[in-house]
Amino acid sequence: MEVFARSEKNQGVSSLSVTMFKDNLNNGFNPTGNPLNVMDLYLFSAANNFVPNQFAVRITTDDNLTVGVSYTITRVYTDTDSNPNSPTFGQTTTTNYNGSFSNLAYQSINTQFVTITDQMPKLKVKDFLNGLFRQFNLIAYLSYEGQIIVEPLDTYYAGGESFDITKYVKTDQHTIGESIPFSEVDFEYTKPKSILAEQFFLVNNKEYGKLSFLSGASKKNVYQIKLPFEQMIFERLFNVANQTATDVQVGTFMDTELKPSIGAPLMFYGIFQQPNEGTVINFVNTYRKEDGSLPEPADNYSLPTYWIPSVCNELGTSTTAPTHNLNFGSEINTFTFTDYGGVNNSLFQTYYENYITRVFNSRTRIFKFEAILPLRVLINLTLDDLIIIGTRTYTINKMTTKLQSGETSFELLNEPN
Length: 417
Prior knowledge:
19 strands, 6-stranded mixed sheet, alpha+beta
């Protein structure tokens, strides 16, 4: 839907003026469906039979509001030929309409809309974006059209081409080195401050959703992905009467002493629940008095449909894991109570596994080559391309070029068999 005009933070009577439609000989608004000539258009308008395109007015408010509608349609005509019966240049006709939403077939919605900027975490934009890029192993690059493209690393490499540069390479000057630059890999969230996550750490001596790996590599470096977000353990509620699981899942920002505890920004999925014969959420839609009592009569309210928070994008089943999971490691699904045996579409499996397993492959090596590339190769070569030298194929790890001479230094990873 195209927005023609918007007015915000209004009080009392407000008005907007906007040009929405233009008529011409071949696209007149004729109820008969036939094209209009100038006389027809004038006659229909004069008779108030003009039929404009539909338009909608939306009003949002944080308070209860009684709305009345009054709008004016002004039509401006111009001469299109020398016909003496055509309208006079600059002639206008004005029609006023007054009424309410009901008799104008408008829909009145008294609701509150979510303002995204108000829901953003107390975090620098740079740190927030850095967290998203680390969480989903994203890269960003500038396209030839000047657009910034953001996509996962695997998707980026899948879009590359192959270039055979054998004849441009100084094959007698290459070196081969160890490819494993790290002895330890850690994927983790900020230390949690919610009760279930803290209890999980106390029982299991590990943070919920974290993934770590320790190798026997000679280099004592740590590859660490630490997010500025918190990971919460959500809890599916049970019916206390018969101990059956409901369709409601909640998260609680309280510490182990049951006191409010707001931690780092929380990333989660919302799953819409519309059970056929499921649990209805009931609550009293009012405020408590200072003494803690409820006003009489209490305004009871029921929610037959609702959104539940989850680390997964969908519920999943006892045999099929959800397609996306915000845990780095393998954890039991909090809604289906299922351990998927490590195959749960975690962040590591979806966005990091190909890269990490390749780097730690015992057959992977880093090759360094020097080459002098012609301009036609340089202008087409990008970092997602595969490099062919002789009979081997490589992925570009690093690449530096002197544009004037074409001298290029490559740091390449071989494709392990």
